[in-house]
Each structure stands twice: as C-alpha cells, then as structure tokens.
Write a structure and sequence with these properties.
Blueprint lengths: L10 H10 L1 H12 L10 H13 L4 H7 L7 H13 L27 H11 L10
C-alpha cells in the first residue's frame, strides 16, 4: 500500500480512492468516523491520516479495492486458505486476491499473432485480407 514509490505523496492514495473507489471509501469512512467524507469541508492534510487508519484494517473495503481483491475475505476464508496452503506444495493465489473478471479489462493476448500465417489462413478460407485484423 503505497510503499512502492517514495517520491509520491501518500495522500494521492486518498485521491485515487475518491476517484476510482468512492463507494468503498465512503462505506469504510462511515463505519469508522460515523459521517461521510466530504472533500469540500475536510482538508486533505486532515483526511489523509484518517484514511490511513482505515487502510491499516485489512478487512476494509478500501484496502480490498486498492489491492485489487474481488471481495473482502472473512476469518473463515483466511483460515481455510492457510490450512490448504500449509498442506499443499503449490503456491496458490487465494480467491479474494484474484482479479474480478467481470469488472476488469480484458487481458491482451500473450503472444503476438504472426501476420504472415494469418494472411495465409485468410487466403485459404477465402476471407478478405483485412478480416479480423487487430491493428
């Protein structure tokens, strides 16, 4: 959470949460501070330490949103994951840490297409040269 780049102010995390994950931030803010966050009345230098307290809680929706989790795990999820991880030799990503495929952008193909082979296939199938060109 923000430890990757030291040259940026940490308060940019709050701005990112406000712009991209406002519902999660407002939910957590209401749970902790019992009032909604209003950037017009709460200055950034006061709001950031309050947000930092929210982000210390690994069960907060804001933390989950920044971590890219699909959902917020409860204690049972974490316990089952740790037991399974201890008995398995595989290093598996827990379900909550996997990206939500319904909301995420489609991933680009891992390998570039060979345009020469694609053109040959299009000719054999009787398709126009520019059919299904991605570029």
């Amino acid at each position: 959470m923000g430890a990757g780049r030291q040259d940026r102010p940490k308060s940019l995390i709050l701005i990112t949460l406000w712009q991209d994950h406002r519902a999660a931030l407002q939910y957590d803010w209401m749970q902790v501070w019992h009032q909604p966050l209003d950037p017009k009345t709460t200055p950034l230098n006061i709001a950031w330490p309050m947000c930092r307290e929210i982000l210390k809680n690994r069960r907060s929706h804001s933390f989950a949103a920044l971590a890219g989790w699909a959902y917020v795990p409860d204690d049972t999820d974490k316990l089952v994951q740790s037991i399974n991880q201890g008995q398995s030799k595989l290093n598996l990503t827990p379900d909550w840490a996997k990206p939500d495929t319904l909301l995420s952008e489609p991933t680009p193909p891992k390998h570039r297409h060979d345009h020469r082979r694609r053109a040959l296939l299009n000719r054999r199938l009787g398709l126009p040269e520019d059919w299904m060109n991605e570029e």
